[in-house]
Design brief:
The protein is mainly alpha-helical. The protein is built from 8 helices and no strands. It has one domain. Helix 4 crosses helix 7. The structure holds zinc ion. The site of zinc ion (ZN) has 6 residues, from loops. This is Reverse transcriptase domain, Reverse transcriptase zinc-binding domain protein. Keywords: Nucleotidyltransferase, RNA-directed DNA polymerase, Transferase. One of its GO terms (molecular function) is RNA-directed DNA polymerase activity.
């Protein structure tokens, strides 16, 4: 998150800027436009689909995501208990990581990108993180899938 927020991850635009990549710098996920940090995590149709699903699942307002900073601000707007805020923040970080991982799998291994697969990864990895972070947690898998975090 820290590196992405500083625009310090190796997107194709960043590699071109550093004279490491010459030629095509079109988004590895959608193929529509230049692959910048902001595009990968906000404007890309893949990222948009993932955020729609994640925000619906967590019941948080998505708002307008134009830049990576907007993702961090989305995390800061979350209401509810202290635990809920921590869990949503963790889910948002994990979502960014899963988007970046899917981008890399597409770019380097030509693995087809599917929004539902990324969302499933966020939910399943997120549950493992939640149980580890909150000493087993009080929400079971069914509750996690309904995001019943406020009842903790
Ligand atoms: Zn894209």
């Amino acid at each position: 998150m820290w590196r992405a927020n500083l625009d310090r991850i190796p997107t194709l635009v960043a590699l071109t800027r550093r004279n490491i990549l010459f030629g095509d710098n079109i988004c590895s996920m959608c193929g529509d436009t230049e692959e910048s940090t902001d595009h990968i995590f906000t404007a890309c149709i893949i990222a948009n689909g993932v955020w729609d699903a994640i925000c619906t699942w967590c019941n948080i307002p998505k708002g307008f995501l134009f830049s990576f900073q907007d993702i961090i601000e989305m995390a800061n707007r979350v209401d509810g208990s202290r635990v809920r805020k921590q869990v949503v923040y963790g889910v948002i970080v994990l979502t960014c990581w899963c988007i970046w991982k899917a981008r890399n799998e597409k770019r380097f291994n030509n693995v087809e990108i599917k929004v539902p697969k990324i969302v499933t990864d966020v939910k399943s990895l997120g549950y493992l993180w939640y149980r580890n972070r909150f000493n087993g947690g009080k929400v079971d898998w069914k509750g996690w899938n309904l995001f019943c975090i406020d009842i903790v």
